[in-house]
Amino acid sequence: MAGLTFFNILCVTVIAGSVWYFFDAMRAREIATATVREYCKQCCLQFLDGTVGLKTVSFSAENGKLRVRRHYEFHFSESDHSRKIGLVTICGTDVENLILPNQLFHPGHSTLEA
Q: Does the residue 114 lie in any domain?
């Protein structure tokens, strides 16, 4: 263990943290995309581009745990001639809300599941 220095431990920690963050971000994006796709299907909306884009990232402390909160933006249409923007918030792997113009979806109050 003579080669195990503080710098080596720091490098391994940073690399491991980066790998974890990458996979966590991919999972959150998959959840956001699936949630929006299902919601648009249930509401007879067209989910344009079929994907969500990361808008902001923040952190929240809930019950003594640090969680990553991600806000995603997506485009949808009610008709062939409109393009509107919606937002979905994922905290950890939980959908907090889905916001469309004049609508707000809370996952605990609907039959929609991610």
A: no
